[in-house]
């Protein structure tokens, strides 16, 4: 097995045992990037020289007995909304073409303190305001969308061009591309991971989280990122710092809520079949499946858009007026639409969110996790704008992808997506597990048990070089 093919957990074990050096691992990842980047377009910037320097320092520290933990010497990608001092943070937009960050974001600082090696910045849908990341191609099929907005991070991880990566999630932007590219993505509890030094899309909905090839890998990255940060007003005062996972796959005593409404409405038959098959396997592992009704489902889209659109426009107000021509047309029209949202509409969305959070808390008192499809369909063809459902209704591709992800952003609950199969075209299908606030341990446990039962090894996609 070549070093770039190792999962984070495997690479950390090899580095800790002295069977592999950080420089060997980083060089393998950089060679993989060179081989596949032209086909995938996952990166905005690749910092080859700096990565090799960081890997050499990690190698020296480990040899000297200064081992910082499982991320020490592990190469990663960072979504290009996240600041690293001295590097551009472009948000994949012409608006910020000349920007250079003056300081590290909190998450970058924590990863550097853990000894991780930055490979480069990954592509995002412009300012994270979209669900396709058009400049990046799906790791499984270059004629399909990568998903967004963290498309570059998901594709890099899926293709073995990063051992792990960070993304952001405002309405599914970690989970959607993770599902479409067959990797693991975790949107944590709102406020669990600091967003200081991260370009916002919507302050009250934004989350930062990891994309990895296994659930165990996600737990390792999460452990390095949590902790209160006074620089982020939403940062939670206390949080666990470790998320150990059991070795066995026993789910006895776990109550899994299976939605009877909303999450299986307007979903492709192959996606539904794969998710229900995964649920049957989890039942075989000892979990109890419990039917649940998703509360206030008819208000999800209005509440999500009522919060996100005006908040995004408020952040971009100055540049939208001074350089509107620098925005991509799809992003510009959304930002302009935000100027038409009244204060009353925004306040009504805030009130609806409060009611929705309360209703979800009551639902999650009866079950431990909610299991559902991550997205209603697999990766759409590039350029496809509309999907038609069997009942004759139509929906834009972006609306379809955000529909099943938005509730976890509105309510702030943790949501983990992991691969549970493929469709007839060989494209990945994802299932998300959602738990109570600060319930990362339970969703990771459930996902890890399912993954272990499937004997999922987290191998990268065999992209043609």
UniProtKB/TrEMBL annotation:
<dbReference type="InterPro" id="IPR000120">
    <property type="entry name" value="Amidase"/>
</dbReference>
<dbReference type="Pfam" id="PF01425">
    <property type="entry name" value="Amidase"/>
</dbReference>
<feature type="domain" description="Amidase">
    <location>
        <begin position="24"/>
        <end position="444"/>
    </location>
</feature>
<dbReference type="InterPro" id="IPR023631">
    <property type="entry name" value="Amidase_dom"/>
</dbReference>
<protein>
    <submittedName>
        <fullName>Amidase family protein</fullName>
    </submittedName>
</protein>
<dbReference type="InterPro" id="IPR020556">
    <property type="entry name" value="Amidase_CS"/>
</dbReference>
<dbReference type="InterPro" id="IPR036928">
    <property type="entry name" value="AS_sf"/>
</dbReference>
């Amino acid at each position: 097995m070549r070093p770039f093919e190792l999962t984070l957990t495997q690479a950390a074990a090899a580095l800790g045992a002295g069977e592999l050096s950080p420089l060997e691992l980083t060089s393998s990842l950089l060679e993989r990037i060179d081989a596949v980047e032209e086909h995938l377009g996952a990166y905005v910037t690749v910092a080859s020289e700096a990565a090799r320097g960081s890997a050499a320092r990690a190698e020296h520290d480990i040899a000297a007995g200064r081992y910082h933990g499982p991320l020490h010497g592990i190469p990663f990608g960072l979504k290009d909304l996240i600041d690293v001092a001295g590097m551009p943070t472009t948000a994949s937009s012409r608006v910020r073409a000349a920007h250079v960050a003056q300081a590290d974001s909190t998450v970058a600082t924590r990863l550097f303190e853990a000894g991780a090696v930055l490979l480069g910045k990954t592509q995002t849908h412009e300012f994270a305001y979209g669900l396709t990341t058009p400049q990046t191609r799906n790791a499984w099929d270059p004629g399909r969308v990568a998903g967004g907005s963290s498309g570059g991070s998901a594709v890099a991880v899926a293709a073995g061009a990063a051992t792990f990566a960070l993304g952001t999630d405002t309405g599914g932007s970690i989970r959607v591309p993770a599902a479409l590219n067959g990797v693991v993505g975790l949107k944590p509890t709102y406020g669990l991971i600091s967003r200081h030094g991260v370009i916002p899309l919507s302050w009250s909905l934004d989350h930062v989280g990891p994309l990895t090839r296994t659930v165990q890998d996600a737990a390792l990255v999460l452990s390095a990122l949590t902790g209160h940060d006074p620089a982020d007003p939403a940062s939670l005062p206390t949080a666990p710092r470790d998320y150990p996972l059991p070795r066995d796959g026993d789910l006895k005593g776990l109550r899994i809520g299976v939605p009877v409404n909303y999450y299986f409405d307007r979903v492709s038959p192959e996606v539904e079949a794969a998710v229900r098959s995964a649920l049957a396997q989890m039942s075989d592992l000892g979990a109890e499946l419990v039917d649940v009704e998703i509360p206030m489902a008819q208000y999800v889209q209005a509440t999500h858009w009522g919060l996100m659109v005006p908040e995004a426009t408020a952040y971009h107000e100055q540049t939208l007026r001074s350089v509107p021509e620098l925005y991509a047309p799809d992003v510009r029209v959304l930002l302009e639409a935000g100027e038409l949202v009244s204060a009353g509409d925004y306040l009504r969305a805030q009130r609806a969110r409060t009611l929705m959070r309360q209703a979800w808390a009551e639902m999650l008192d009866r079950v431990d996790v909610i299991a559902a499809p991550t997205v209603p369909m697999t990766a759409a063809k590039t350029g496809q704008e509309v999907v038609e459902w069997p009942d004759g209704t139509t929906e834009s591709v972006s609306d379809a992808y955000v529909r099943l992800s938005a509730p976890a952003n509105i309510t702030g609950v943790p949501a983990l997506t992991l691969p549970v199969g493929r469709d007839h075209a060989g494209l990945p299908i994802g299932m998300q597990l959602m738990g109570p606030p600060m319930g990362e341990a339970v969703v990771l446990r459930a996902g890890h048990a399912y993954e272990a039962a499937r004997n999922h090894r987290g191998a990268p996609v065999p992209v043609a070089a």
